[in-house]
Design goal:
alpha/beta; TIM Barrel; eight-stranded parallel β-barrel; two-stranded antiparallel sheet; about 500 residues; 2 domains
């Protein structure tokens, strides 16, 4: 008898725990007046994504789905917690969890966005479904209100199908209290959950996870594209520094680690997916980010074009090692990294730049050349070293942290940083904006402007317009996921405004 009682208490705890999970999920959504499953459905990425997207696109269906989802969670949770209609609640719970499971199944692209860890096939929804299946087939349901049907509603000679331990349910005060045990427990836990509301409820739990594309409805149009070689490129390109964890943060020493903490692999993939959905079809990455992009494209089937920055191994005099790796990794466009172009020109090693450009082209790839100091590009062009496109820092210096013009010198970017506020300290990336504009205006190859916001010192409305108005054919901008839709809209407005610029569009 003692073993049987212990067994029933364990089953009661097991059933009530599952019930509380459903019930709490329902309460969270009920308490949040702005909650909707629309974003969850709109971002579904499993094999049945079309079905979920169809539901999300219908305002009429969402007016039914949202309250139905909440009601189902509450009723299933109450039934399981209190022990009433346990079998019916188990079936309904399995069906509901199946809908959640196949919206973001732990395989394929959606496996990238599993919360709580990495899963394959088996995730919390799957495990909870198995637990409910076990409850459905078990004869013993633990203590609960259902037992009162046996105690007070049983007819003479009728076999009771609910439990296998009919002797345990008697008209005794002790047994009645046991079967009512979940009632005070529900009250106590429910009061605690209600009290916890003052600290804010996690409304992204359970079936509310999202990739972050809910703001896509706010897009004001489609990004125009241009050509670099035979590649069709969106005029706004995603920069790779924030994703790669590099931050030009002046004297704010915590910022790089903050960027890396925020941009986990999952967040990076979410950002890339959102960028693609917003019409940004190209990213410019640093060489160390190749592995991340390869994994992203393999996992998602993404067609996002990747411009990869490369540099020579001067110690081994191997100028092509990174070029070969970029090609083997399936990168689309290859570009000599800006700081290396500056250093090679500064050190009078133009032959290295020339050989690298020739190597890239010989493999059938578009070859780009980047620089921070415009002198680098001026010297290269004077020597007949002309790439398929230039990538040049392009921003004005009308912002607070820019050091005085008279103190700026060529090749200082990526050089020594000074404690003197009047000298370079990771704060100015286009030291000579007028000379840059003059060079860009006269060149006959496409120009991609980067650092157009001076690493966050210039508002995008201002920085985008300055770069496009002064000749940039494309701009490369580092963006967090929550900035993408807004930046695309700003780019659309600016591009519409600068149609009549002095330099014709190249590409």
């Amino acid at each position: 008898m003692k073993n049987n009682t212990a067994k029933r208490w364990v089953i009661t705890l097991f059933r009530a725990a599952i019930g509380w999970h459903f019930l709490y999920e329902g309460m969270v959504k009920l308490w949040d007046k702005n909650w909707s499953a629309a974003s969850y459905l709109a971002n579904a990425a499993g094999p049945f994504a079309g079905f979920y997207h169809w539901m999300a696109d219908s305002d009429f269906l969402m007016q039914i789905i949202d309250p139905l989802n909440i009601a189902a969670l509450l009723l299933i949770g109450l039934a399981l917690f209190l022990g009433v209609f346990v079998r019916a609640a188990s079936v309904c719970g399995i069906l509901l969890l199946a809908l959640y499971y196949f919206a973001y199944p732990p395989f394929g692209i959606s496996s990238l966005f599993q919360s709580g860890g990495s899963y394959y096939i088996v995730n919390p929804n799957f495990i909870e479904s198995v637990a409910l299946l076990l409850l459905f087939f078990m004869k013993e349901k633990g203590y609960g209100i259902y037992a009162f049907k046996e105690a007070f509603g049983r007819k003479k000679g009728r076999e009771e199908p609910w439990v296998d331990n009919k002797e345990a349910i008697l008209h005794t005060r002790r047994e009645v209290l046991k079967n009512l045990a979940t009632l005070p427990a529900l009250g106590l836990i429910g009061w605690g959950a209600l009290d916890n509301r003052k600290y804010g409820i996690d409304t992204l739990s359970g079936a509310t996870i999202q990739i972050g594309a809910s703001e896509l409805k706010e897009l004001k149009g489609e990004l125009p594209r241009g050509k670099i070689g035979n590649h069709s490129i969106s005029r706004l390109i995603l920069g790779g520094n924030l994703i790669g964890g590099w931050a030009h943060s002046r004297d704010l020493i915590y910022v790089p680690s903050l960027f890396r903490a925020y941009n986990t692999e999952k967040k990076i993939f979410e950002t890339l997916l959102l960028a693609e959905k917003a019409g940004i079809n190209t990213i410019n990455i640093g060489f160390p980010t190749i592995e991340t992009m390869v994994k992203y494209r393999k996992a998602t089937g993404s067609k996002m074009k990747v411009i990869c920055q490369v540099h020579p191994d001067m110690e081994k005099k191997d100028y092509f090692v990174n070029i070969n790796t970029a090609i083997d990794s399936g990168m689309d466009i290859i570009q000599i990294q800006g700081n290396w172009c500056d250093w090679l020109v500064r050190d009078n090693q133009l032959d290295v730049i020339e050989k690298m450009l020739e190597k890239i082209r010989s493999q059938g790839y578009v070859a780009g050349l980047a620089a921070h100091t415009v002198d680098s590009l001026i010297v290269c062009e004077a020597e007949g070293i002309i790439p398929d496109y230039y990538m040049k820092t392009m921003h004005h210096d009308r912002y607070w942290s820019a050091h005085p013009r008279e103190n700026r010198v060529p090749f200082e970017v990526d050089g020594e940083v000074y404690l003197d506020h009047n000298k370079f300290h990771d704060n100015c990336f286009c030291p000579f904006p007028e000379r840059t504009v003059e060079f860009v205006q006269q060149t006959d190859v496409p120009v991609m402007g980067f650092k157009v916001l001076a690493a966050g010192a210039i508002p995008p409305e201002d920085g985008f317009e300055w770069a496009f108005q002064n000749g940039a054919d494309f701009i490369c901008v580092g963006m967090f996921d929550f900035q993408i839709v807004n930046d695309v809209n700003i780019a659309l407005e600016v591009l519409d405004k600068v149609k009549e610029r002095k330099r014709k569009w190249h590409g």
